[in-house]
Write a structure and sequence with these properties.
Elements (H helix, E strand, L loop, with lengths): L5 E6 L2 E6 L16 H14 L3 E3 L6 H8 L4 E5 L2 H13 L6 E3 L2 H6 L3 E6 L6 H10 E9 L2 H4 L4 H8 L9 H19 L2 E11 L2 E10 L1 H8 L2 E4 L2 E5 L6 H13 L9 H11 L7 E2 H8 L6 H7 L3 E3 L2 E6 L4 H9 L1
Parallel strand pairs: 3-4, 3-6, 4-5, 6-7
Antiparallel strand pairs: 1-2, 7-9, 8-9, 10-11, 12-14, 13-14
Helix pairs in contact: 1-2, 1-10, 8-9, 10-11
Length: 334
Amino acid sequence: MATQNLKTVREGESELLVPDVAKPEEGEVFYHPDQALARDMSILVYRAYGYEVLDAFAGTGARSVRLVRNGVRVVANDISDRALEMTRQNATHNGVELPTIHNRAEKTIHSRLWEAVDLDPFGTPAPWVHCALLNTKKLLAVCATDTAALTGTYPRVSRRRYGFHSVRTPNYPEVATRALAGFVVREGAKLEVAAEPVFAHVYRHYIRVYFELHKGAGRCDALLKQMGEHRGVHPIWMGQLWKKELVRQMQEDAREAGLALGSKLTLKHLDLITGEVDFPQPYFHLHKLCKELGAPVRPMAEVLEKLDAVRTHFTPLGFRTRKSEDEVSAWLKS
């Protein structure tokens, strides 16, 4: 097959060479513009920690190049010759030095201990989580695009791939995020590596969770106590999804450093997440809950006021509150 033509796109501070195709999946190397938000968030997370990052599935090099341009040390890996060629082209095009490795992700991960590893494959990250936990010292990022397996659409795949019982819930984006987080927590516990979720976000086709890693059986036991059930989905992570200090630092960095963000939604999502941090209970989907109850849909402004609630980045129709589901249901039916 002949090499596809490339086009240039502007994403934040970088000008990227990407396949000139109508749909992302048609490209020789995958590039999705919707993940500009995810790349913005990764820049803010990795800047906050200051670790060297292995980008295990570099693809076009969009994340790697943008990270380097924002002061993060990166090693880019991919098994595809064409992907690494594009990664190097993008590094040269943007005037940055970017070490690259041509290998299977698991072999590169196992080649040495890394401060931070970013797993962003096409589909499920499950096959690489174990080896990443073995060879990562400080921080692990895990991205999943096989959302049907995490949201209850295919229960057998959920059980086989991630080891949990899935049911389709009204607030499935958050439940799926907690399922992914719980999978990593349990995988880490097998190795006595405490993988604590510190930041998570969802947008359209992907779920992304970051974990601080610490050694120790006691730390693992403490995390496992925070596994639980929500509306029949179990076992999933029921602890905090965000570290408050990290979110605050990310928000300050995004505003004060004048970063050239790749997505207009990044600051909006950060603002919403900042409000969510103090409301650890999973969100309620207003329209779906009212339909379940046979109750009329109240205006969101009234819901937020009467239930002392906040909005969520997971959906414009969701809200978080400290009140129980029984209390929320009783008010909606009143």
